[in-house]
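Section 4.2 – Deliverable D4.2 (structural model, holo form)

The reporting period included a commitment to supply a predicted holo structure for the target in complex with zinc ion. Inputs used:
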Amino acid sequence: MIATPDYRALLDTAIAEARQGLAEGGIPIGAALYHQDGRLLGCGHNRRVQESDPSIHGETDAFRKAGRQRSYRDTIMVTTLAPCWYCSGLVRQFGIGTVVVGESQTFQGGIDWLRENGIEVIDLQSQECVDLLGGFIAAHPEVWNEDIGED
Ligand SMILES: [Zn+2]
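Output (C-alpha cells):
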C-alpha cells in the first residue's frame, strides 16, 4: 500500500508554475500531474495570454507535458484552482483518479460533478492560491472573464 502523498507539497509545484505564469504576464494558474507514488509526470501553467491560445490551461499543459501514460487511475491532477468544465472533462476522459485543488473559492468549476462521478477531489483551501489569482483578477478582470468563458 502506498502512503498518502503530501498534497501540500504537491501543490507547491502547481503554485510555482502559477507564479511563473504571472511573471510571464499570464493568468496565474498552475498545475502538475503526479503519480500516486510521488513521481512528477508533468507540470505547466495557463498560457492563454502568452501564446494567445485559449486551450492551454494549467491542467491541459501539465497533461501534455506528461506525455503518454498507460493508465491515469493512479495519477493525481494538482491544480491551483478548481478545474473548469474543459479540464474536468479531461480528468474524466482519461480516468484520472484524484484531483487536488488549491482553492475553489474564486471558481468552483466542475468539482461537484467530478465527485458525483467517483473522482476523489481534495480542496486544500489555500489562501496563497486565493490571493495569487485574486490579485490578478482585480488588475485584469477582462482577461479572467475571457478565461472562464463569460462575456
Ligand atoms: Zn481548465
